[in-house]
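Record type: monomer structure entry
Structure origin: computed from sequence
Chain ID: A
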Amino acid sequence: MTAFWLLAPIVVVAAVGMVVARKAVHSALMLAVVMIGLAMMYAMQDAPFLFAVQIIVYTGAIMMLFLFVLMLVGVDKTDSLVETLKGQRLVAILLAVLFGVVAVVVVAQTAVAPAVGLDAANEGGNVQAIADLLFSPYVFALEATAALLITAVLGAMVLAHRERLEPKRTQKDLALERMQRYADDGTHPGNLPTPGVFARHNAVDVPALLPDGSAAPESTSKVLRDRGAVRDGVFDRDVALTLRRLASDDPVGGERGVIEPGPTDSSAGPEREEDER
């Protein structure tokens, strides 16, 4: 029971964090914590089969599928806050409260009066006992569930399939479109630099610097730009001071000029200003 009271608060906090998280990736990670906690509770109840299934299938497979879908679809789309069904929030709150009451009652009954008959049910081993139940009295229910899942997968494939309504664009068509955009509004037809080129950091959330020292926002991912997670990649004050000293010492470099730094950290004190002078 000690392990249960240690795991239960972690699982509850992770479940609440999963609901209130503003980013879908954080919510998925909180759900993974909940699943791992449940797997540990299964292990405490001498259910190694459920423990392995919870870790391998749910946490290892389904959670990775969630994360892959989030990464492929992106998070630059915002969900509509308009309720399509009137009163669905009230119904959801009532169901959540009812489920919480049932969960508390079940846990309380288990703590007060521990389950009996587990030794007889797991006779010969937990995995062997589950296999005997699944493939003996519940074999029809197992096969019906498998058929239902296969039908659901086929239905999802049919509903998600889209017929191509226009011919596929070739590399030549794409090149012509880039040159047409260059002729119309001056959009550069070549590839933009990757994030971090000539910048202070080479991370994916730092835009590359153009030859004039300005940042190229298009070099970062659109998802990061929509989230406001793009960092400032211009030179910091130390690099600016070094460039100015080099320019003052090198007459040729001084004639050419140096790249002026962009916005710097406002936390620099008077000592840094004195050094600059």
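Annotation 1: Residues 251-277 have pLDDT under 50 and may be disordered.
Annotation 2: Residues 119-158 form one domain.
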